[in-house]
Amino acid sequence: MRVGGNILSSPVYELSTVPFPIPIKGIFFTKVINFWQSGKFRILNNILFADKTVDLRGQMMQVVVLEHTPAVLTSISNPVIEMANSKTTDDNNHLHNRPNFQTFTKLYYGVEVELLKAISKTMHFQMNFYETADAGLERWGTMSLNGTITGLLREMHEGRADFALADLHHTNYHLGFMDLSIPYNTECLTFLTPEALSDNSWKTLIMPFNGEMWAGVLFSLFSVGFVFYAFSSTMSYIHRHEKSYQPEYDMIKRSHRRRRKPKDAFGILTCKAKLARCKTFCNRKLSNSFLRCVQKNRKANTQSTAVPYSYNSNVKLQKIRMIQFKRKPEPWHDPLPPKDIFDSFAGCIIYTYSWYWIYCVLVVVAYRASFTAILANPIPRLTIDTLQDLAKSPIRCGAWGEQNLRFFQMADDPHSQIIGTKLEHAPNPQDAVDQVVQGMYAFYENIYLLRQLRSTQKSEKARQTLHIMKECVVNMPISIGLEKNSPIKSQVDRYVRALVEGGLTGKWLSDAIERFQSNVELPPQEATIDLTKMYAGIIALGIGYGISMVAFMAEKCYWVYFVESNPSFDKYLLGTKFRKQG
Protein backbone atom coordinates (compact mmCIF):
# COMPACT_ATOMS: atom_id res chain seq x y z
CA MET A 1 0.00 0.00 0.00
CA ARG A 2 1.35 3.39 -0.98
CA VAL A 3 0.60 6.43 1.21
CA GLY A 4 2.00 9.91 0.17
CA GLY A 5 4.62 8.48 -2.23
CA ASN A 6 6.04 6.17 0.46
CA ILE A 7 5.75 2.43 0.43
CA LEU A 8 4.58 1.01 3.76
CA SER A 9 6.18 -2.24 4.72
CA SER A 10 3.28 -3.57 6.86
CA PRO A 11 -0.09 -4.23 5.27
CA VAL A 12 -3.30 -2.68 6.57
CA TYR A 13 -6.43 -4.77 6.99
CA GLU A 14 -9.87 -3.23 6.89
CA LEU A 15 -12.53 -4.83 9.11
CA SER A 16 -16.13 -4.34 7.97
CA THR A 17 -19.50 -5.97 8.53
CA VAL A 18 -20.74 -8.81 6.35
CA PRO A 19 -24.33 -10.14 6.48
CA PHE A 20 -23.23 -13.79 6.63
CA PRO A 21 -25.00 -16.22 6.25
CA ILE A 22 -27.86 -14.13 4.89
CA PRO A 23 -27.57 -13.79 1.11
CA ILE A 24 -27.10 -10.24 -0.21
CA LYS A 25 -30.01 -8.85 -2.12
CA GLY A 26 -29.53 -5.64 -4.05
CA ILE A 27 -26.90 -3.07 -3.10
CA PHE A 28 -25.15 -3.64 0.22
CA PHE A 29 -23.07 -0.97 1.95
CA THR A 30 -20.50 -2.26 4.37
CA LYS A 31 -19.66 -0.54 7.64
CA VAL A 32 -16.01 -0.14 8.57
CA ILE A 33 -15.38 -1.26 12.13
CA ASN A 34 -11.59 -0.89 12.50
CA PHE A 35 -8.20 -1.24 10.82
CA TRP A 36 -5.52 -3.77 11.71
CA GLN A 37 -1.83 -2.91 11.11
CA SER A 38 1.44 -4.02 12.65
CA GLY A 39 -0.28 -6.33 15.12
CA LYS A 40 -2.65 -3.79 16.58
CA PHE A 41 -5.80 -1.86 15.89
CA ARG A 42 -5.62 1.69 14.75
CA ILE A 43 -8.74 2.67 16.71
CA LEU A 44 -8.09 1.86 20.35
CA ASN A 45 -10.72 0.87 22.96
CA ASN A 46 -13.02 -0.33 20.22
CA ILE A 47 -14.94 -3.51 21.07
CA LEU A 48 -15.59 -5.54 18.00
CA PHE A 49 -18.21 -7.92 19.34
CA ALA A 50 -19.96 -6.16 22.22
CA ASP A 51 -22.41 -8.14 24.40
CA LYS A 52 -25.66 -6.35 23.71
CA THR A 53 -27.48 -8.35 26.41
CA VAL A 54 -25.76 -6.40 29.15
CA ASP A 55 -27.82 -3.31 28.43
CA LEU A 56 -31.12 -3.85 26.68
CA ARG A 57 -31.79 -0.10 26.54
CA GLY A 58 -35.40 -0.17 27.71
CA GLN A 59 -36.48 -3.08 25.53
CA MET A 60 -40.03 -4.29 26.34
CA MET A 61 -40.09 -7.92 27.46
CA GLN A 62 -43.24 -10.02 27.44
CA VAL A 63 -43.63 -11.96 30.67
CA VAL A 64 -46.32 -14.64 30.92
CA VAL A 65 -47.29 -15.37 34.52
CA LEU A 66 -49.37 -17.95 36.32
CA GLU A 67 -50.55 -17.41 39.88
CA HIS A 68 -48.94 -20.04 42.06
CA THR A 69 -47.64 -19.77 45.62
CA PRO A 70 -44.95 -18.65 46.37
CA ALA A 71 -43.65 -17.69 42.92
CA VAL A 72 -46.48 -15.45 41.73
CA LEU A 73 -49.27 -13.96 43.81
CA THR A 74 -51.92 -11.49 42.72
CA SER A 75 -53.94 -8.77 44.37
CA ILE A 76 -56.56 -6.35 43.13
CA SER A 77 -55.81 -2.71 43.79
CA ASN A 78 -58.48 -0.22 44.86
CA PRO A 79 -60.43 1.38 42.02
CA VAL A 80 -58.77 4.50 40.76
CA ILE A 81 -60.64 7.28 39.01
CA GLU A 82 -58.68 8.31 36.00
CA MET A 83 -59.14 11.25 33.72
CA ALA A 84 -58.23 10.63 30.16
CA ASN A 85 -57.43 13.99 28.73
CA SER A 86 -56.44 12.64 25.39
CA LYS A 87 -57.56 15.28 22.96
CA THR A 88 -58.74 14.30 19.54
CA THR A 89 -59.67 16.51 16.69
CA ASP A 90 -62.60 15.60 14.51
CA ASP A 91 -63.34 16.78 11.05
CA ASN A 92 -64.62 20.10 12.44
CA ASN A 93 -61.50 20.45 14.66
CA HIS A 94 -63.55 20.41 17.85
CA LEU A 95 -61.90 19.38 21.14
CA HIS A 96 -63.34 16.30 22.83
CA ASN A 97 -62.48 15.00 26.32
CA ARG A 98 -62.99 11.35 27.41
CA PRO A 99 -65.23 10.90 30.49
CA ASN A 100 -64.02 9.62 33.87
CA PHE A 101 -63.96 5.84 34.37
CA GLN A 102 -62.86 3.38 37.09
CA THR A 103 -60.13 0.79 36.54
CA PHE A 104 -59.15 -2.21 38.67
CA THR A 105 -55.45 -2.91 38.49
CA LYS A 106 -54.21 -6.45 39.00
CA LEU A 107 -50.91 -6.42 40.84
CA TYR A 108 -48.40 -9.25 40.76
CA TYR A 109 -45.94 -10.01 43.52
CA GLY A 110 -44.01 -12.99 44.78
CA VAL A 111 -40.54 -14.46 44.73
CA GLU A 112 -40.13 -14.69 40.96
CA VAL A 113 -41.76 -11.31 40.33
CA GLU A 114 -39.35 -9.58 42.70
CA LEU A 115 -36.46 -11.57 41.26
CA LEU A 116 -37.27 -10.49 37.70
CA LYS A 117 -37.79 -6.88 38.77
CA ALA A 118 -34.28 -6.81 40.24
CA ILE A 119 -32.85 -8.28 37.02
CA SER A 120 -34.75 -5.77 34.87
CA LYS A 121 -33.27 -2.87 36.79
CA THR A 122 -29.78 -4.21 36.16
CA MET A 123 -30.25 -5.15 32.50
CA HIS A 124 -32.40 -2.08 31.75
CA PHE A 125 -35.50 -3.60 30.21
CA GLN A 126 -39.20 -3.15 30.82
CA MET A 127 -41.75 -5.88 31.51
CA ASN A 128 -45.30 -6.50 30.42
CA PHE A 129 -47.01 -9.04 32.71
CA TYR A 130 -49.94 -10.94 31.30
CA GLU A 131 -51.79 -14.22 31.72
CA THR A 132 -52.99 -16.58 29.06
CA ALA A 133 -56.67 -16.65 28.19
CA ASP A 134 -57.00 -20.22 29.43
CA ALA A 135 -54.89 -19.76 32.57
CA GLY A 136 -57.78 -20.56 34.92
CA LEU A 137 -58.52 -23.86 33.18
CA GLU A 138 -55.32 -25.06 31.54
CA ARG A 139 -52.87 -23.42 33.97
CA TRP A 140 -49.35 -24.60 32.93
CA GLY A 141 -50.79 -26.38 29.94
CA THR A 142 -50.70 -29.84 28.47
CA MET A 143 -49.71 -31.47 25.22
CA SER A 144 -52.26 -33.80 23.67
CA LEU A 145 -51.54 -36.86 21.57
CA ASN A 146 -52.00 -34.91 18.34
CA GLY A 147 -49.36 -32.39 19.40
CA THR A 148 -51.69 -29.59 20.52
CA ILE A 149 -50.19 -27.55 23.34
CA THR A 150 -52.23 -25.37 25.68
CA GLY A 151 -51.68 -22.91 28.50
CA LEU A 152 -48.39 -21.37 29.46
CA LEU A 153 -46.35 -24.01 27.66
CA ARG A 154 -47.91 -22.95 24.37
CA GLU A 155 -46.88 -19.34 24.88
CA MET A 156 -43.28 -20.34 25.50
CA HIS A 157 -43.15 -22.97 22.78
CA GLU A 158 -44.40 -20.54 20.14
CA GLY A 159 -42.03 -17.79 21.30
CA ARG A 160 -44.69 -15.28 22.27
CA ALA A 161 -43.16 -14.57 25.67
CA ASP A 162 -39.60 -13.85 26.72
CA PHE A 163 -40.01 -14.94 30.35
CA ALA A 164 -42.30 -17.36 32.16
CA LEU A 165 -43.02 -16.95 35.87
CA ALA A 166 -45.02 -19.94 37.09
CA ASP A 167 -43.06 -21.80 39.77
CA LEU A 168 -41.58 -24.06 37.10
CA HIS A 169 -39.87 -27.29 38.11
CA HIS A 170 -36.39 -27.72 36.69
CA THR A 171 -37.15 -30.95 34.82
CA ASN A 172 -36.57 -32.35 31.36
CA TYR A 173 -40.28 -32.07 30.68
CA HIS A 174 -40.17 -28.28 30.87
CA LEU A 175 -36.81 -28.08 29.09
CA GLY A 176 -38.53 -29.50 26.04
CA PHE A 177 -40.62 -26.33 25.72
CA MET A 178 -38.32 -23.55 27.00
CA ASP A 179 -35.00 -22.72 28.59
CA LEU A 180 -34.71 -22.58 32.37
CA SER A 181 -32.47 -20.41 34.48
CA ILE A 182 -30.37 -21.86 37.25
CA PRO A 183 -32.56 -22.85 40.24
CA TYR A 184 -33.13 -20.06 42.72
CA ASN A 185 -34.86 -22.24 45.34
CA THR A 186 -35.80 -25.80 46.20
CA GLU A 187 -39.35 -26.61 47.31
CA CYS A 188 -40.53 -29.54 49.37
CA LEU A 189 -43.19 -31.38 47.40
CA THR A 190 -45.45 -33.45 49.61
CA PHE A 191 -49.06 -34.49 50.12
CA LEU A 192 -51.95 -32.85 51.91
CA THR A 193 -53.63 -35.75 53.70
CA PRO A 194 -56.69 -36.09 55.94
CA GLU A 195 -56.11 -36.25 59.66
CA ALA A 196 -58.29 -38.29 62.00
CA LEU A 197 -58.48 -37.32 65.66
CA SER A 198 -58.95 -40.51 67.65
CA ASP A 199 -61.80 -39.45 69.90
CA ASN A 200 -61.37 -42.19 72.48
CA SER A 201 -63.04 -40.35 75.34
CA TRP A 202 -65.34 -43.31 75.83
CA LYS A 203 -62.26 -45.42 76.63
CA THR A 204 -60.81 -43.01 79.17
CA LEU A 205 -61.90 -45.09 82.16
CA ILE A 206 -60.47 -48.33 80.77
CA MET A 207 -57.28 -46.95 79.22
CA PRO A 208 -55.21 -46.86 82.47
CA PHE A 209 -54.83 -50.66 82.27
CA ASN A 210 -54.17 -52.76 79.22
CA GLY A 211 -56.04 -55.93 78.39
CA GLU A 212 -53.77 -58.26 80.36
CA MET A 213 -53.94 -56.04 83.44
CA TRP A 214 -57.73 -55.81 83.31
CA ALA A 215 -57.93 -59.58 82.89
CA GLY A 216 -55.79 -60.07 85.99
CA VAL A 217 -57.81 -57.58 88.05
CA LEU A 218 -61.15 -59.10 87.03
CA PHE A 219 -59.83 -62.60 87.65
CA SER A 220 -58.71 -61.62 91.14
CA LEU A 221 -62.08 -60.03 91.88
CA PHE A 222 -64.07 -63.07 90.84
CA SER A 223 -61.59 -65.53 92.32
CA VAL A 224 -61.79 -63.95 95.79
CA GLY A 225 -65.56 -63.96 95.54
CA PHE A 226 -65.48 -67.65 94.68
CA VAL A 227 -63.12 -68.26 97.61
CA PHE A 228 -65.60 -66.64 100.00
CA TYR A 229 -68.38 -68.64 98.43
CA ALA A 230 -66.34 -71.84 98.74
CA PHE A 231 -65.72 -71.18 102.44
CA SER A 232 -69.41 -70.56 103.05
CA SER A 233 -70.51 -73.60 101.04
CA THR A 234 -67.97 -75.86 102.71
CA MET A 235 -69.01 -74.75 106.20
CA SER A 236 -72.69 -75.18 105.32
CA TYR A 237 -71.96 -78.64 103.95
CA ILE A 238 -70.16 -79.66 107.14
CA HIS A 239 -72.89 -78.33 109.45
CA ARG A 240 -75.61 -79.81 107.27
CA HIS A 241 -74.35 -83.28 108.16
CA GLU A 242 -74.49 -82.53 111.92
CA LYS A 243 -77.92 -83.62 113.11
CA SER A 244 -77.81 -81.57 116.31
CA TYR A 245 -77.01 -78.29 114.53
CA GLN A 246 -79.78 -75.91 113.61
CA PRO A 247 -78.70 -72.33 112.83
CA GLU A 248 -82.15 -70.86 113.51
CA TYR A 249 -82.40 -72.60 116.86
CA ASP A 250 -78.88 -71.49 117.82
CA MET A 251 -79.60 -67.83 117.11
CA ILE A 252 -82.93 -67.92 118.97
CA LYS A 253 -81.21 -69.62 121.89
CA ARG A 254 -78.53 -66.94 122.13
CA SER A 255 -81.10 -64.18 121.72
CA HIS A 256 -83.70 -65.27 124.31
CA ARG A 257 -81.23 -66.71 126.85
CA ARG A 258 -83.21 -69.71 127.87
CA ARG A 259 -83.19 -70.28 131.63
CA ARG A 260 -82.56 -73.95 131.55
CA LYS A 261 -79.11 -74.96 132.72
CA PRO A 262 -76.63 -75.45 129.95
CA LYS A 263 -75.06 -78.85 130.38
CA ASP A 264 -72.18 -80.45 128.76
CA ALA A 265 -72.10 -84.00 127.48
CA PHE A 266 -71.92 -85.45 131.02
CA GLY A 267 -74.81 -83.37 132.49
CA ILE A 268 -72.46 -81.25 134.64
CA LEU A 269 -72.78 -77.45 134.73
CA THR A 270 -69.95 -75.77 132.98
CA CYS A 271 -67.83 -73.24 134.78
CA LYS A 272 -69.10 -70.42 132.63
CA ALA A 273 -72.73 -71.31 133.31
CA LYS A 274 -72.07 -71.49 137.05
CA LEU A 275 -70.47 -68.05 137.09
CA ALA A 276 -73.34 -66.59 135.12
CA ARG A 277 -75.92 -68.13 137.45
CA CYS A 278 -74.07 -66.95 140.54
CA LYS A 279 -73.80 -63.43 139.15
CA THR A 280 -77.52 -63.31 138.42
CA PHE A 281 -78.41 -64.66 141.86
CA CYS A 282 -76.16 -62.15 143.65
CA ASN A 283 -77.55 -59.24 141.70
CA ARG A 284 -81.09 -60.29 142.52
CA LYS A 285 -80.32 -60.64 146.27
CA LEU A 286 -78.52 -57.31 146.44
CA SER A 287 -81.28 -55.45 144.66
CA ASN A 288 -83.98 -56.98 146.91
CA SER A 289 -82.11 -56.12 150.11
CA PHE A 290 -81.48 -52.61 148.90
CA LEU A 291 -85.17 -52.10 148.17
CA ARG A 292 -86.20 -53.37 151.64
CA CYS A 293 -83.82 -50.92 153.29
CA VAL A 294 -85.22 -48.05 151.29
CA GLN A 295 -88.82 -48.92 152.19
CA LYS A 296 -87.92 -49.23 155.88
CA ASN A 297 -86.34 -45.77 155.89
CA ARG A 298 -89.41 -44.26 154.23
CA LYS A 299 -91.72 -45.67 156.91
CA ALA A 300 -89.49 -44.45 159.74
CA ASN A 301 -89.56 -40.87 158.56
CA THR A 302 -93.01 -39.36 158.98
CA GLN A 303 -92.06 -36.21 157.14
CA SER A 304 -91.28 -36.42 153.52
CA THR A 305 -87.68 -35.61 152.85
CA ALA A 306 -86.08 -34.89 149.52
CA VAL A 307 -84.52 -37.94 147.96
CA PRO A 308 -80.97 -37.31 146.89
CA TYR A 309 -80.32 -37.07 143.22
CA SER A 310 -77.95 -40.01 143.37
CA TYR A 311 -80.65 -42.21 144.90
CA ASN A 312 -83.12 -41.40 142.13
CA SER A 313 -80.45 -42.04 139.54
CA ASN A 314 -79.61 -45.41 141.07
CA VAL A 315 -83.26 -46.38 141.15
CA LYS A 316 -83.66 -45.42 137.49
CA LEU A 317 -80.54 -47.29 136.54
CA GLN A 318 -81.73 -50.28 138.52
CA LYS A 319 -85.07 -50.20 136.72
CA ILE A 320 -83.39 -49.90 133.37
CA ARG A 321 -81.15 -52.78 134.29
CA MET A 322 -84.12 -54.93 135.05
CA ILE A 323 -85.38 -54.53 131.45
CA GLN A 324 -84.53 -57.62 129.46
CA PHE A 325 -83.60 -57.14 125.80
CA LYS A 326 -84.78 -59.64 123.26
CA ARG A 327 -81.29 -59.91 121.86
CA LYS A 328 -77.98 -58.99 123.36
CA PRO A 329 -75.26 -57.79 120.95
CA GLU A 330 -72.38 -60.22 120.72
CA PRO A 331 -69.22 -60.33 118.66
CA TRP A 332 -69.19 -62.37 115.46
CA HIS A 333 -68.17 -66.01 115.95
CA ASP A 334 -68.99 -69.48 114.71
CA PRO A 335 -72.38 -70.86 115.82
CA LEU A 336 -70.76 -73.89 117.44
CA PRO A 337 -67.40 -74.40 119.11
CA PRO A 338 -64.89 -75.67 116.56
CA LYS A 339 -64.04 -79.31 116.74
CA ASP A 340 -61.18 -79.27 114.22
CA ILE A 341 -59.50 -76.96 111.70
CA PHE A 342 -62.21 -77.59 109.10
CA ASP A 343 -65.05 -76.71 111.44
CA SER A 344 -64.27 -72.97 111.61
CA PHE A 345 -63.28 -70.63 108.75
CA ALA A 346 -63.27 -67.39 110.71
CA GLY A 347 -59.48 -67.04 110.67
CA CYS A 348 -59.21 -67.97 107.00
CA ILE A 349 -61.83 -65.44 105.98
CA ILE A 350 -60.27 -62.68 108.07
CA TYR A 351 -56.80 -63.23 106.62
CA THR A 352 -58.15 -63.56 103.09
CA TYR A 353 -60.16 -60.37 103.44
CA SER A 354 -57.17 -58.49 104.86
CA TRP A 355 -54.83 -59.44 102.05
CA TYR A 356 -57.55 -58.78 99.51
CA TRP A 357 -58.04 -55.30 100.96
CA ILE A 358 -54.31 -54.56 100.61
CA TYR A 359 -54.42 -55.81 97.02
CA CYS A 360 -57.35 -53.51 96.23
CA VAL A 361 -55.47 -50.53 97.67
CA LEU A 362 -52.48 -51.24 95.41
CA VAL A 363 -54.72 -51.62 92.35
CA VAL A 364 -56.47 -48.33 93.08
CA VAL A 365 -53.15 -46.49 93.50
CA ALA A 366 -51.81 -47.86 90.21
CA TYR A 367 -55.07 -47.03 88.42
CA ARG A 368 -55.05 -43.49 89.73
CA ALA A 369 -51.46 -42.85 88.63
CA SER A 370 -52.08 -44.21 85.14
CA PHE A 371 -55.38 -42.33 84.85
CA THR A 372 -53.69 -39.03 85.74
CA ALA A 373 -51.01 -39.64 83.11
CA ILE A 374 -53.66 -40.30 80.46
CA LEU A 375 -55.48 -37.08 81.26
CA ALA A 376 -52.23 -35.12 80.97
CA ASN A 377 -51.32 -36.54 77.54
CA PRO A 378 -52.69 -34.97 74.35
CA ILE A 379 -55.24 -36.69 72.16
CA PRO A 380 -53.46 -39.13 69.81
CA ARG A 381 -53.56 -38.11 66.16
CA LEU A 382 -53.91 -40.57 63.30
CA THR A 383 -51.87 -39.02 60.48
CA ILE A 384 -50.11 -40.10 57.29
CA ASP A 385 -46.52 -38.86 57.44
CA THR A 386 -44.58 -41.19 55.12
CA LEU A 387 -44.87 -42.51 51.59
CA GLN A 388 -45.16 -46.01 52.99
CA ASP A 389 -48.21 -45.05 55.03
CA LEU A 390 -49.77 -43.32 52.02
CA ALA A 391 -49.12 -46.32 49.78
CA LYS A 392 -50.77 -48.67 52.30
CA SER A 393 -53.78 -46.42 52.85
CA PRO A 394 -56.87 -46.84 50.63
CA ILE A 395 -57.21 -43.11 49.89
CA ARG A 396 -56.80 -41.79 46.35
CA CYS A 397 -54.09 -39.30 45.34
CA GLY A 398 -54.24 -36.29 43.08
CA ALA A 399 -51.71 -33.98 41.41
CA TRP A 400 -51.64 -31.55 38.52
CA GLY A 401 -50.18 -32.45 35.17
CA GLU A 402 -48.70 -35.34 33.31
CA GLN A 403 -45.18 -34.62 34.54
CA ASN A 404 -46.10 -35.48 38.12
CA LEU A 405 -47.73 -38.70 36.98
CA ARG A 406 -44.59 -39.66 35.09
CA PHE A 407 -42.45 -38.80 38.09
CA PHE A 408 -44.23 -41.35 40.31
CA GLN A 409 -44.57 -44.02 37.64
CA MET A 410 -40.88 -43.87 36.69
CA ALA A 411 -39.59 -43.76 40.28
CA ASP A 412 -37.43 -46.58 41.61
CA ASP A 413 -39.17 -46.52 44.98
CA PRO A 414 -41.89 -49.24 45.14
CA HIS A 415 -44.06 -47.05 47.36
CA SER A 416 -43.92 -44.23 44.82
CA GLN A 417 -44.91 -46.65 42.08
CA ILE A 418 -47.93 -47.75 44.11
CA ILE A 419 -48.90 -44.10 44.56
CA GLY A 420 -48.44 -43.56 40.81
CA THR A 421 -51.01 -46.27 40.06
CA LYS A 422 -53.71 -44.41 42.01
CA LEU A 423 -52.62 -40.85 41.14
CA GLU A 424 -55.26 -38.75 39.41
CA HIS A 425 -55.21 -35.44 37.57
CA ALA A 426 -56.42 -32.63 39.86
CA PRO A 427 -57.19 -29.54 37.73
CA ASN A 428 -58.59 -27.42 40.58
CA PRO A 429 -56.68 -27.23 43.88
CA GLN A 430 -59.70 -26.04 45.86
CA ASP A 431 -61.83 -28.97 44.72
CA ALA A 432 -58.98 -31.29 45.64
CA VAL A 433 -58.83 -29.80 49.15
CA ASP A 434 -62.58 -30.33 49.55
CA GLN A 435 -62.07 -34.01 48.77
CA VAL A 436 -59.22 -34.19 51.28
CA VAL A 437 -61.53 -32.80 53.98
CA GLN A 438 -63.94 -35.65 53.25
CA GLY A 439 -61.17 -38.06 54.23
CA MET A 440 -60.55 -40.14 51.08
CA TYR A 441 -58.09 -38.04 49.05
CA ALA A 442 -54.50 -36.75 49.16
CA PHE A 443 -53.30 -33.74 47.16
CA TYR A 444 -49.70 -33.35 45.89
CA GLU A 445 -48.15 -29.87 45.83
CA ASN A 446 -45.40 -27.76 47.35
CA ILE A 447 -45.56 -27.19 51.08
CA TYR A 448 -46.15 -23.43 50.78
CA LEU A 449 -49.26 -23.80 48.66
CA LEU A 450 -50.57 -26.54 50.94
CA ARG A 451 -50.22 -24.24 53.96
CA GLN A 452 -52.06 -21.52 52.10
CA LEU A 453 -54.90 -23.85 51.15
CA ARG A 454 -55.25 -25.02 54.72
CA SER A 455 -55.22 -21.50 56.16
CA THR A 456 -57.93 -20.29 53.77
CA GLN A 457 -60.44 -22.87 54.97
CA LYS A 458 -63.34 -21.15 56.74
CA SER A 459 -64.32 -24.11 58.90
CA GLU A 460 -62.23 -24.78 61.99
CA LYS A 461 -63.02 -28.48 61.69
CA ALA A 462 -61.74 -28.49 58.11
CA ARG A 463 -58.48 -26.83 59.17
CA GLN A 464 -58.00 -29.45 61.88
CA THR A 465 -58.75 -32.26 59.43
CA LEU A 466 -56.08 -31.19 56.90
CA HIS A 467 -52.58 -32.46 57.63
CA ILE A 468 -49.39 -31.88 55.65
CA MET A 469 -47.28 -35.00 55.37
CA LYS A 470 -43.94 -34.57 57.16
CA GLU A 471 -41.87 -36.55 54.66
CA CYS A 472 -40.93 -34.69 51.48
CA VAL A 473 -41.43 -36.72 48.34
CA VAL A 474 -38.73 -34.71 46.59
CA ASN A 475 -36.94 -31.38 47.06
CA MET A 476 -37.65 -29.92 43.63
CA PRO A 477 -35.43 -27.13 42.20
CA ILE A 478 -37.41 -24.13 40.90
CA SER A 479 -36.32 -21.92 37.97
CA ILE A 480 -37.46 -19.02 35.81
CA GLY A 481 -38.53 -19.88 32.28
CA LEU A 482 -36.97 -18.19 29.24
CA GLU A 483 -37.59 -18.36 25.53
CA LYS A 484 -36.00 -21.30 23.79
CA ASN A 485 -32.35 -20.48 22.90
CA SER A 486 -32.67 -17.10 24.60
CA PRO A 487 -29.54 -14.93 24.20
CA ILE A 488 -30.00 -13.40 27.65
CA LYS A 489 -29.90 -16.70 29.55
CA SER A 490 -26.27 -16.32 30.60
CA GLN A 491 -26.88 -12.84 31.97
CA VAL A 492 -30.04 -13.97 33.78
CA ASP A 493 -28.18 -16.90 35.36
CA ARG A 494 -25.43 -14.55 36.47
CA TYR A 495 -27.80 -12.18 38.25
CA VAL A 496 -29.94 -14.97 39.70
CA ARG A 497 -26.86 -16.50 41.27
CA ALA A 498 -25.88 -13.14 42.73
CA LEU A 499 -29.35 -12.56 44.20
CA VAL A 500 -29.43 -16.04 45.74
CA GLU A 501 -25.98 -15.60 47.27
CA GLY A 502 -27.01 -12.21 48.62
CA GLY A 503 -29.98 -13.73 50.46
CA LEU A 504 -32.62 -11.63 48.71
CA THR A 505 -34.55 -14.65 47.46
CA GLY A 506 -34.92 -15.88 51.03
CA LYS A 507 -36.27 -12.49 52.11
CA TRP A 508 -38.75 -12.36 49.24
CA LEU A 509 -39.87 -15.88 50.05
CA SER A 510 -40.54 -14.91 53.67
CA ASP A 511 -42.52 -11.87 52.54
CA ALA A 512 -44.62 -13.96 50.15
CA ILE A 513 -45.65 -16.58 52.71
CA GLU A 514 -45.97 -14.20 55.66
CA ARG A 515 -49.79 -14.26 55.55
CA PHE A 516 -50.16 -17.97 56.14
CA GLN A 517 -46.82 -18.82 57.78
CA SER A 518 -48.51 -18.65 61.22
CA ASN A 519 -50.71 -21.55 60.15
CA VAL A 520 -47.84 -24.00 60.59
CA GLU A 521 -48.92 -27.04 62.59
CA LEU A 522 -47.83 -26.68 66.19
CA PRO A 523 -47.12 -29.75 68.29
CA PRO A 524 -49.81 -30.51 70.88
CA GLN A 525 -49.21 -29.03 74.27
CA GLU A 526 -48.05 -31.49 76.87
CA ALA A 527 -49.48 -31.94 80.35
CA THR A 528 -52.79 -30.22 79.71
CA ILE A 529 -55.99 -31.54 81.24
CA ASP A 530 -58.82 -31.77 78.72
CA LEU A 531 -62.21 -32.05 80.39
CA THR A 532 -63.77 -33.42 77.24
CA LYS A 533 -61.96 -36.65 78.01
CA MET A 534 -64.16 -37.00 81.08
CA TYR A 535 -67.48 -36.73 79.25
CA ALA A 536 -67.67 -40.47 78.71
CA GLY A 537 -66.65 -41.05 82.32
CA ILE A 538 -69.44 -38.80 83.55
CA ILE A 539 -71.92 -40.64 81.35
CA ALA A 540 -70.66 -43.98 82.63
CA LEU A 541 -70.96 -42.82 86.23
CA GLY A 542 -74.46 -41.54 85.54
CA ILE A 543 -75.46 -44.89 84.08
CA GLY A 544 -73.94 -46.66 87.07
CA TYR A 545 -75.78 -44.42 89.52
CA GLY A 546 -79.02 -44.98 87.63
CA ILE A 547 -78.65 -48.76 87.70
CA SER A 548 -77.76 -48.59 91.39
CA MET A 549 -80.86 -46.55 92.19
CA VAL A 550 -83.07 -48.96 90.26
CA ALA A 551 -81.52 -51.93 92.06
CA PHE A 552 -81.93 -50.19 95.43
CA MET A 553 -85.60 -49.44 94.76
CA ALA A 554 -86.22 -53.02 93.62
CA GLU A 555 -84.53 -54.40 96.73
CA LYS A 556 -86.50 -52.01 98.94
CA CYS A 557 -89.78 -53.04 97.34
CA TYR A 558 -88.90 -56.71 97.75
CA TRP A 559 -88.04 -56.13 101.42
CA VAL A 560 -91.25 -54.25 102.17
CA TYR A 561 -93.73 -56.32 100.19
CA PHE A 562 -92.24 -59.81 100.53
CA VAL A 563 -89.92 -60.02 103.53
CA GLU A 564 -91.65 -57.83 106.10
CA SER A 565 -95.09 -59.08 105.10
CA ASN A 566 -94.12 -62.65 105.99
CA PRO A 567 -95.73 -63.74 109.32
CA SER A 568 -92.50 -65.44 110.38
CA PHE A 569 -90.47 -62.23 109.99
CA ASP A 570 -88.66 -61.03 113.12
CA LYS A 571 -86.72 -57.80 112.81
CA TYR A 572 -84.40 -58.89 115.64
CA LEU A 573 -83.45 -62.11 113.84
CA LEU A 574 -82.48 -60.86 110.40
CA GLY A 575 -79.95 -63.62 109.84
CA THR A 576 -82.44 -66.53 110.07
CA LYS A 577 -84.36 -68.11 107.26
CA PHE A 578 -88.10 -68.51 107.32
CA ARG A 579 -89.32 -72.04 107.79
CA LYS A 580 -92.78 -73.29 107.36
CA GLN A 581 -94.24 -74.47 110.60
CA GLY A 582 -95.67 -77.93 110.40
From TrEMBL:
One of its GO terms (cellular component) is plasma membrane. It holds the Pfam family Lig_chan-Glu_bd. SUPFAM superfamilies: Periplasmic binding protein-like II. Residues 101-158 form the Ionotropic glutamate receptor L-glutamate and glycine-binding domain. It is found in: Cell membrane. InterPro entries: Glu/Gly-bd, Insect_Ionotropic_Sensory_Rcpt. The chain crosses the membrane at residues 213-231, 534-554. Keywords: Cell membrane, Glycoprotein, Ion channel, Ion transport, Ligand-gated ion channel, Membrane, Receptor, Transmembrane, Transmembrane helix, Transport. It comes from the Eukaryota. The keyword Glycoprotein applies. One of its GO terms (molecular function) is ligand-gated monoatomic ion channel activity. It is a multi-pass membrane protein. This is AGAP007951-PA-like protein. It comes from Anopheles sinensis. The lineage of its organism: Eukaryota, Metazoa, Ecdysozoa, Arthropoda, Hexapoda.
